Amino acid sequence: MEIELGDRFYPLRIRKLAQARSIAVSADIVKGEVCLTMPRYAPTAQALRFAQSKSQWLAARFAEALPPIPIVPGAKLAFKGEPHRVHWSPDFRRQPERRDLEICVGGPEDRVASRVLSWMKDQAREVYADDLAYYCARADQPLPTLSIGDARRRWGSCSGRKSIRLNWRLIMAPPMVRRSVVAHEVAHLEHMNHSPDFYGYLDDIFDGDRHKADDWLKQHGAALHLVGASPR
Length: 232
What we know:
- By secondary structure, the chain is an alpha/beta fold.
- The protein has helices at residues 44-53, 55-64, 112-139, 175-187, 196-205, 210-224, and strands at residues 2-5, 8-17, 24-28, 33-39, 76-79, 82-88, 97-99, 102-105, 145-149, 156-158, 163-167.
- Strands 1-2-4-3 form a four-stranded mixed sheet.
- The longest helix is centred in the middle third of the chain and has 28 residues, at 112-139.
- The two termini are 16 Å apart.
């Protein structure tokens, strides 16, 4: 199913949720699609009319969006907050390797994106494990299970089973920003909420400025999701 916005057609993804109480529409600028969320009992035709009524607003959101950042030879990608150039050569090893401010990768040129993405996720897991051990020690918390994900709306999450999941894309952010998310999730091991006690606990264990880190993610977080995204 598609929706027409101006002179372009965009895929329309409909989600019917039991917990939804109203119809909501949003522009997914990474996937280049319109998301329509609605209660299960609502007529689909009514939801479609609502989405169409927001066509000008949706078109503006897509027009304002930054373009996807393809992972190709010569592309500039951030790694730990520093810009790195993707340098491909058939003479390089297939496994990407960081050299100064370059990510050097060999093998077939059409596999550059998949190899670099796999490498960045591996680097994220290694770096996050160190961060997690550090903040668990500061918080006097047992080390939880770590998993790596790519959630669109969360940089991290902490489950009641004492496991923490972190978005691999934080490896591109400055270290203080990445570490603030790790510390945030570690604080949830003690307080599974966002109460004043939670933030007091977080401020005790985080050795940086969480407000600056939060501001950075608000300003630049969307761009991290565009790395390796499909062209719109």
